[in-house]
Amino acid sequence: MSFSISHLLLLEGGLMHFGGNGISSGRRWTFRPLLSEGTLSRSILHNYTARDSSSEYCGCLNGGWCQDGGVCDCAQFQALGDRCQIIPNQGRDRDGICRSWGQHHYETFDGIYFYFPGTCSYILAQDCHAAAPQYTVWVHNSRVCDGSVHSCPRALSLFFPNEEEIHISGYQVHQGGRRLSLPHTVGGVFIERLADYLLVKSVFGFSLAWDGGSGVYLKMSEEHQGAPCGLCGNFNHLAGDDLTTARGIRTDEPAAFANSWAVDLPHERACPSVDLDFNGPCHSESDMDALDDSRDAEVVVPLGAVQRPEGQVSVTAQHRRLGGAHTFVPHPMTRLTMQRWNTFLSGSS
Hints:
This is Otogelin-like protein. Keywords: Disulfide bond, Glycoprotein, Signal. The protein is mainly beta. It is built from four helices and 19 strands. The chain has a nine-stranded antiparallel sheet with strand order 3-6-5-4-17-16-15-14-13, covered by helices on one side. Strands 7, 8, 9, 10, 11, 12, 18 and 19 form an eight-stranded antiparallel sheet that branches. A two-stranded antiparallel ribbon has the order 1-2.
């Protein structure tokens, strides 16, 4: 019997109603202004089809092949956009889960995968349906990541009404400057470590799993349908509008979308926005040739896009050249880990 990640993110109870004035954290934060908000279409901003066909790189992402005239062939993973910048993932066992891993890889609740090399802090998900959000999740990417994106640590911040910020770094959880001993309950939120993961459960239909390094999995109950916003999208079961900016503008540009959800932290220096024409993980033939010499490398596969052996959430594969784009899959969550999680969450011994 196989288990999906949804078994790990079981939801309990109904809605919890909070009073007060919403999030009570003392931290001030602002949305990052967008780049060229009124002209988000790449066909307007850049004429990529006019690139020199002799160039060794034409900007294709996500397995796109550079064709004559600088046009990207996106058939490899049925990617969309003139750079193959997004991949609709309707694979089985998705279960409406938003996930992000390896600093730069994101998949929305409704199954849109995109690569975004941002180095700032971002709103991963937030309750945008109410004036006082029931939840807000920030992901803090490494400002400098010179090695593998899997070796550069991220962190999370969680905000709930009338509670101080909960900060998660590695497997340490802090609130109000003090470290919390796990398991721990904060209001209607329960935090526990199980094996190599931290699990956050709430009584109002929000749950999260964190691998201590870069991988985060987030699930909402159906009562939150259409309510979230942020890098995880809006959870309305319509993939076409997932990349909606903080100002409510739809785009097919991951950079324009994700930049809009950046937050400036008062104790950090200003963080640069990502250019619309950002490079993929490998942006030249020389980069790909160097990777071709490494048989231990992994290739990108959007979660759910391939058959997974032994109930894994993702699979690794031998490195292959994908026409100008190499990306990486997260560490697999095995069936055993899922079963232990499911047993724990169900309250069984």
